[in-house]
Amino acid sequence: MPVPAQRTRPGPRRALTEDQILDAALTLLDAGGANAASVRAIAAQVGVAPNAVYTYFPDKAAIVKALVERLLGQVDHGVFIDRDQPWRQRVEALALELRERLSAHPGAVPLLIGGPMDGPHALALNERLLELLADAGLNPTDAARASYLLIVYVFGSIALEVADLPQPGPLPPESERIDTRLDAFTATPAEHYPRTAAAAAAMAGYISTEQYLWGLRRMLDGITASTTAHTEAAGV
Amino acid sequence: MPVPAQRTRPGPRRALTEDQILDAALTLLDAGGANAASVRAIAAQVGVAPNAVYTYFPDKAAIVKALVERLLGQVDHGVFIDRDQPWRQRVEALALELRERLSAHPGAVPLLIGGPMDGPHALALNERLLELLADAGLNPTDAARASYLLIVYVFGSIALEVADLPQPGPLPPESERIDTRLDAFTATPAEHYPRTAAAAAAMAGYISTEQYLWGLRRMLDGITASTTAHTEAAGV
DNA sequence: TTCAACTCTGCACGCTGTACAGATAATGTA
DNA sequence: TACATTATCTGTACAGCGTGCAGAGTTGAA
Q1: pTM of the predicted model over 0.90
Q2: CATH of region B18-233, choose from 1.10.3720.10, 1.10.357.10, 3.10.20.580, 3.40.640.10
Q3: Which of A97, A191, B157, B167 has its CA 20 to 30 A from that of A88?
């Protein structure tokens, strides 16, 4: 690939890099939630005037877009690229990896689902998922459909999980969040919502990893049931 | 129920109702997207000073919450409450009804998934869904888990569908949006993303009702496969 | 008739994204 | 070495945001 044509232009050296700005944005998001990453706050974090940020990104939407791309790029492909593993296990590894990476930055999740994920890293993840489902024996159309089903599930789960948080900041431990939910659900009036009241414990666990895997496995069951019979080790 | 203790207090009559404010908010959302429903714009729409809105709602978050509740309340229960229908058909009816109601107001969708849906209408929908899955023969725990799986799918689908829109305003026809997506996906470089490029047509249809139902049915397949054998007409 | 409660307005504050003009620094060229 | 060009950063500013406070005016109860 060509050398990226640098350093030949006049003008003072940049005091920052795009990455530093994205670092600052992510730090602010982690500390203060989705609204904390204002252009002014980012600028203050990196020590420049607010409008200096526009030297690096044309507008705030571009910052968000770049940040989303960076987060998707942090997903470790190694776990589920290994074709020697059973494909269902590879899907689970991908789903868990994505959930872990994204829930590490709950403030960024609204930004992820606030726009199309069409950057290079998003495409790369899509490509890997299509490969994986092809390995599972699905034809290209079913593989595409199944991949979107999985994408909807992963991002939908995380979005609802984050939406449940009462305040910004890092994600509290799962057990703590479940306890909070249980308190809320046990207050449900049983005379109006008998089944909801009876299912309070199960509903408190909606945001758990266990429920996440349960749902994922039900979907994989449904996906495999729909295809014609195929061996588990479809391989290459 | 008790008469809501009205009209006995001093002070001038209100010029508006809460409903008028929610109407105005929804109109603005429909026309200009999620950010168009500012307190000032709502106030202008109903013809009062911006801070007069705070007579009816304590803050903007309360307006959003009430609006979400109203939208969930518009879901027609009649379609899927009918126990004479096969349960899978009832689930599909619910899923389609919800999607139709919400995609009528794409600008409101980010508000829906931006916070917990814990109002009375949300609880009522949850209750109905638990009933439905109990009718399907699922035990309470599985019914609860399956209901959350379905909720994640429905709201995740709609969220991703809305996130794909390039501009605010009413949802263009499905065919038009698919065409736009197809144009984008056919531009995918096949040398880097061969499977994505090959699946362009299927991926363009991710936002279609067909894909929505396909995914829903795969999930129902998976849910039923996981439970012990049960007759289709589990009934009461 | 007086009083207290309530609704609405004008004004203001601090926040947001971002446009414009100007000072400064670094470069390629003469 | 001097100059012209260009990129970077700052100061200032504007319109819009949510919302708090003080006050004017309207209404029902005592």
Answers
A1: yes
A2: 1.10.357.10
A3: B157
